[in-house]
Amino acid sequence: MGQALCCIQVDQSTVAIKERFGKFDDVLQPGCHCLPWIFGSQIAGHLTLRLQQLDVRCETKTKDNVFVNVVASIQYRALSDKASDAFYKLSNTRSQIQAYVFDVIRASVPKLNLDAAFEQKNEIAKAVEEELEKAMSAYGYEIVQTLIVDIEPDEHVKRAMNEINAAARLRMAANEKAEAEKIIQIKRAEGEAESKYLSGLGIARQRQAIVDGLRDSVLGFSVNVPGTTAKDVMDMVLVTQYFDTMKEIGAASKSSAVFIPHGPGAVRDVASQIRDGLLQGSHQ
After folding, report:
1. Above pLDDT 70, what percent of the chain?
2. Which residue of 3, 59, 117, 201 pairs with 112 in a disulfide if CB–CB is 3.0 to 4.6 A?
3. 214 phi and psi angles, rounded to 5 deg
């Protein structure tokens, strides 16, 4: 009905390309326009001014000979003041953009190792955007944004990279564990050394106390009981120690069988053996 009345409506964010007798005449902006078809005017087509996105997957090779799939996302739109160029100069805009993306990625990524390619995604995206902006501006298109959204190595390469990373982490864990065990052993050895040192001090003090006690006992006994000698006192002390030993052996429930002389005369023999051992030790 609108065409019969020579009127046409152009939607928002869209422009219409007007021709007259097959030749470009004007770009119609959004709104209602008069189109006198009887004078050869007609609409050749419409061109959207909305932001469009094109995802491009490009397979290429890195400098260290690893094949990767680089996924680039291109955001672009037609310029209103260059709508005629955007409509007439390119028959397939998406294919043209894709070709430029392929060209830039396959020229940039082979210069980088795989790790560097992951680290320099922004630089690759910037190179693609600059090349596209320079090429597509001549065709009436603006490149708004270019993103490298993914770099996908081959599955075997990813598995190998994960194994290398896992091995490195296991090596670090083993080093940390060994270092911890080393510290534990050092601390244990220091503790044992300190314990033995203190134990030795205790035994030395105990023996010193025993010697001091025996000396005091011998001196006191010699003074209080006239006619006694130090030998008589030591024999009495040995008898006391002998019976204490017998008592402890008999009281212990888990004692092994011990055969020792138990007659009263055995004390003299024990005392003689102790004195002889001390005298022999002092002469050597």
Report:
1. 76
2. 117
3. -60, -40
